[in-house]
Design brief:
single chain, mainly alpha, 132 residues, 0% strand, 67% helix, elongated
Length: 132
């Protein structure tokens, strides 16, 4: 097979290895070699999707109520201020989730609502208010 390894190709390879194994066409050493090579190929092909899933921060939209607490913590500990950039960068992952949601009865600019909500919380904590 030529080209990149994708889902259907991995399935075909698994099936071919299994048929060869059950038909006793491969020695145990050859079988182990194919299984090990195939395991490596699976790791390489699944790597990008697993990293993407591990780094996805779209959950921030549904848990945005933690923003005031986080901002209060950062403003009470100024050494954490450089970490704010990571929080705001994490909000970028929310774009896809927001475009799919349908929980608002009126079609509004959902991104603007999120931006407004975060800005209000940030400015409230920045003005010196403390969270009780």
């Amino acid at each position: 097979m030529n080209g990149c390894c994708n889902g259907p190709r991995k399935t075909i390879c698994k099936l071919a290895i299994e048929v060869a194994r059950q038909g006793k066409a491969l020695s145990s050493d050859d079988n182990m070699m194919f299984v090990n090579i195939f395991r490596r190929i699976e790791v390489i092909t699944d790597y990008q999707s697993k990293v993407r899933a591990a780094c996805d921060t779209s959950f921030i939209y549904w848990h945005r109520s933690i923003a005031p607490v986080y901002f209060c913590h950062v403003f009470n500990n100024p050494t954490l201020a450089p970490n704010l950039q990571y929080f705001f960068a994490g909000l970028a992952d929310c774009h896809h989730q927001i475009s799919l949601m349908k929980h608002l009865s009126v079609e509004t600019d959902k991104l603007s609502l999120l931006e407004k909500d975060i800005k209000e919380n940030f400015e409230k904590r920045n003005s010196g208010a403390t969270l009780q």
